Amino acid sequence: MNDSEKAELPESPMSRRRALGVAAGLVGGAVLTGTTLDAKTQVPTARVPGAMPAGGAAVVSAPAAPLPVAPPDASMIPGIASGPLSTRSPFEMPALTPVGITTGSSLTPLQHIAGTITPSDLHFQRHHNGIAVIDPHRYALTVHGLVDRPLVFSLEQLKRFPAMTRTCFVECSGNGRSAFRAPKREMTPQQVDGLTSNSEWTGVSVAALLKEAGVQRGATWVLAEGGDAARLSRSVPMDKMLDDAFIAYAQNGEPLRMPNGYPARLLLPGYEGNMCVKWIRRLEAIDQPNMSRDETAKYTDPLANGTARQFSFTMDAKSIITSPAYPTRLMGPGWWPVTGLAWTGRGRIERVDVSTDGGRTWTEAELSNPVLSRAHTRFEHMWKWDGRPAQLMSRAIDETGYVQPTLQTYRDTRGAGTDYHFNAIRTWLVEQDGSVYFGG
Amino acid sequence: MRTTWAGVVLVASMALAGCRIESKEEFAGVPAAARATRLPDRLELGVAATPASIASIDIDANPAGAGLPAGEGTHAQGIPIYAQKCASCHGAKGEGLATYPKLVSADTLAGFPFGKDASIPKTVGNYWPYATTVYDYVHRTMPFTAPGSLTPNETYALVAWLLAENRIVPMTAVMNASTLPKVQMPARRHFVIDDRTGGQPFR
Fold first, then answer.
1. Alpha-carbon distance A264 to A277, whole Å?
2. DSSP-assigned states of every residue in A115-177
3. Which domains does chain A have, with CATH numbers?
4. Which of A19, A29, A283, A391 could bond A358 through an S-S bridge, CB–CB 3.0 to 4.6 Å?
5. Averaged pLDDT for residues A39-67
6. What is the domain partition of chain B in residue ranges?
7. Strands A334-343 and A246-251
8. Does B127 touch chain A (CB under 8 A)?
9. Among residues 143-162 of chain B, which lie with CB inside 8 Å of chain A?
């Protein structure tokens, strides 16, 4: 450390906060050291006048990562005043990763999700040319093609239809590709399978919109197209559109988050995420699939037998243990919950089995109620760890009798070069010192 | 449609465990789909879409040629357009740069080996099953920084360039709404419809 750095340090908010933190009895300091809080999402102590008057002013202009500070006893001092939006505790720092993506994916931190709902700001994102910024007052959804009455719906008009609310997962069909192609021991649940999220969505059924327009005979597909810079387009079978497809304008009780399609998106429960077109601008009733790039060159599954599977819409049953998982470390033998998420695009999860011995024996896990169709389902198995190396696996079985395949079966059946629908059983390796690593 | 709505009502009724809906007062807690059965067939929401408003966004083209606009282009006409608008990302010869995909592969691959080896780049020539998709996608999304800015003639010229470089059509071929749907892509015969059905066996 040179002199100039020494000279700056006492001035830096960081060191002031550290000092205060130590003096005040820093809560959670050990786990938070070295982490970065976004300047906008942190809870600056400036808002905690009663708690930390001196440190607060400095933190507001903090260029570097401040540490959260809690009073030694929150019951001995008035708390902070309410604000227009609540913020996460500064001790909780879940984050999508990677970020800064315009064409690509940002993954949900599955290891930080409890229960089944994905907080809206942690819903995974997959963009094909950035996040569209759309003025809701100028938003329009056009329904045309083989219909009697081509119609344009404003957002307000969409909200005048009977609303439907349902919880379902959205999973990118490329979810798990890196874990399959290039597995690494140091992969988190987020990195393995973070391209799936689960929300309560509210909107209007596509059937109602199509009824309003009057679908003509011969209309067997519907082209769905987004209003983003990718003008992403997919052909959806008319049967699915009339069954349970809906245009969602709300997510977990509030308007859609911008990266998830604000102000409106298509949702096809159980179908691959790419088809759930965000920023939806038109639905065209057509008499044959459009063969758009994302249903031919992409989102098709090359197989070992020299074919490529097309229109593989449904996401099959899958599960992943989200804890314990890398980088968690079990602090000693004893009872540990083995918990995770299971889901299937074909209905309800019937059962989830957990193995702690690499698949030699299986035990049925508990499923948290309610088990919803085409939605994330939480499972848990209480495991008494004896302190010896173990291999944790989960195996989902859905209501059709489908059993999540082993990695070997998956690879043998699909081929090493297959490109989507990676739903093989995942393994976590527990080592003697309690370290947990991804085992493929 | 009628059948579908009846199905919705049936499911909703089952969910109500046999409860019969007699009056508005009983609607509380009833699923929206069941309430909707008391509604007219149409709510008369939305406004008529004008041909002009539809035309402004109806940009797709399908394998039968529907949606392909007037205009045409050749490989020769595509050369300067490709150099100016495409090469900076996809490389001078369509070889791909960094994360921007390779577009051209003139060599024939025996046995469509993509399922065995993920490292083989999928290109217009070796993987795309329909030629009209090239028009649809290029016109829809390219260039990446100015999607939708290519004229039909420019797009046809780029499609001709891509198909000729991939040795799908002759260098002299003219691409237009009539010729493009007739182009047979070698990969097409390898595509099969999804045969997964749930249950067993794993496919």
1. 9
2. SSPPPGGGS-EEESS------GGG-EEEEEESBSS-EEEEHHHHTTSPPEEEEEEEE-TTTTH
3. 3-76 (no CATH), 120-309 (3.90.420.10), 318-438 (2.60.40.650)
4. A391
5. 37
6. 2-38, 55-190
7. unpaired
8. yes
9. 144, 147-148
From the list A161, A223, A281, the residue facing B60 with the nearest CB is A223
B49, B63, B194 member nearest A142 (Cβ): B49
Instruction: Give this complex's ipTM.
Output: 0.84
Using an 8 Å CB-CB cutoff, list chain A residues near B146: none
CB of A392 within 8 A of CB of A324?
yes
Contacts of B197 in chain A (CB under 8 A): 400
Subunit contact A296:B116, Cβ cutoff 8 A: no
Query: CB distance from B20 to chain A under 8 Å?
Result: no
In angstroms, the CA A291 to CA A228 distance is 19
Using the Cβ of B106 and the Cβ atoms of chain A, whether some distance falls under 8 Å is answered with no
Element (H, E) at A308: strand A308-310
Q: To the nearest whole percent, how much of chain A has pLDDT over 70?
A: 85
pTM to 2 decimal places: 0.85
Chain B hits for A313, Cβ within 8 Å: 194
Beta strands in B117-173, from DSSP E residues, in sequence order: none
Residue A180 CA to residue A75 CA, distance in Å, equals 50
C-alpha distance from residue A187 to each of A63, A100, A191, B129 (Å)? 30, 20, 6, 35
Flag whether residue B98 sits within 8 Å of chain A, measured between CB atoms.
Answer: no
Res A125 pLDDT > 60: yes
3-state DSSP call for residue A351?
A: strand
Q: Write down the pLDDT at residue B107.
A: 77
Instruction: Tell me which CATH code domain B55-190 carries.
Output: 1.10.760.10
Alpha helices, H only, A347-414: 407-414
Q: Indicate if the pLDDT at residue A3 is higher than 50.
A: no
CB contact under 8 Å between A150 and B62, yes or no, is no
Question: Which chain A residue is nearest to residue B100, measuring alpha carbons?
Answer: A103
pLDDT at A226: 98
Q: Is B29 in CB contact (< 8 Å) with chain A?
A: no
Report d(CA B132, CA B182) in Å as an integer.
Answer: 9
What confidence tens digit (pLDDT) does each residue in B36-80 have? 567 898 999 999 999 999 999 999 999 999 999 999 999 999 999
Contact call for A417 and B116, based on CB within 8 A: yes
Given a cut of 90, whether residue A110 has pLDDT beyond it is yes
